[in-house]
Amino acid sequence: MDSKGFDRLGRDASGGTRSVKIMIAGGFGTGKTTMVGSVSDIKPLTTEETLTQASAGVDPLIGVTDKTQTTVSLDFGKIGLNDSLVLYLFGTPGQERFWFLWNGLFKGALGAVVLVDTRRLASSFRAIEEMERQDVPFVVALNVFPDSRTYPVEEIRDALDIPAHIPVVSFDARDRASSRDVLVALVHHLKERSAVAVESR
Ligand SMILES: Nc1nc2c(ncn2[C@@H]2O[C@H](COP(=O)(O)OP(=O)(O)OP(=O)(O)O)[C@@H](O)[C@H]2O)c(=O)[nH]1
Ligand SMILES: [Mg+2]
């Protein structure tokens, strides 16, 4: 228990609602802000700023040409998965020049979703490497854009060197139910790792 009477999983002394911090991470423009916005029960907090020339050549807009804004600090949202589990969602900035912020943002996080745009695997590869450095359990979520080719999950796993024990799921970040399914997959993964005991509904 901490000084406020909550244990590491956010449970109060009566064993009531658990509040856990979950990161929504991934490379530039993979749909992190979109996912937090679609799945959050509350109006999400965003820190979007207009894309500038500073990112030109570093974070190419291939596949996301209509993108005009980027997260410069974090996204914040919240979702009650069931009566006893509330997830606080923290979306990371995707531009690599802001990745130094990840160190602080990940503090206290129980798990993470790493978004991947299969059209731009290079940026996702770096994000997965970074996740291993952060040492937080994670699942990989392939955000399927309309013009994405459909790859067998095993092919993506090989291409990104994702170990067999890490779940890889496909989803649509714009869709609340689909985004929620990803969070449920993460919670199951955490449960399997005995990091959190969740009573399923
Ligand atoms: N078609 C389609 N477009 C998407 C999807 N997810 C995001 N987008 C679009 O892709 C662009 C990037 O989405 P964002 O949610 O801003 O991505 P992000 O990962 O937060 O980006 P950064 O914060 O800049 O790293 C936006 O123009 C979205 O409207 C998706 O699932 N399908
Ligand atoms: Mg964003």
Form type: globular
Strand proportion: 15-25%
- Let me know the number of strands: 8
How many structural units, i.e. domains? 1
Number of helices: 5
Mean pLDDT equals 87
Largest sheet: 6 strands, mixed
- The helix fraction, in percent, is 25-40%
Bound molecules: guanosine-5'-triphosphate, magnesium ion
Distance between the termini: 26 Å
What does this structure look like?
The structure is a single chain. Residues 195-201 have low confidence and may be disordered. The chain is of the alpha/beta class and 201 residues long. A hairpin with a 2-residue loop joins β4 and β5. The chain is 25% helix and 23% strand. It has a single domain (18-192), classed as Rossmann fold. The radius of gyration is 17 Å and the shape is globular. A six-stranded mixed sheet has the order 4-5-1-6-7-8. The chain contains five helices and eight strands; from the N terminus they run βαββββαβαβαβα. Guanosine-5'-triphosphate (GTP) binds next to α1 and β3. Guanosine-5'-triphosphate binds next to α1 and β3.
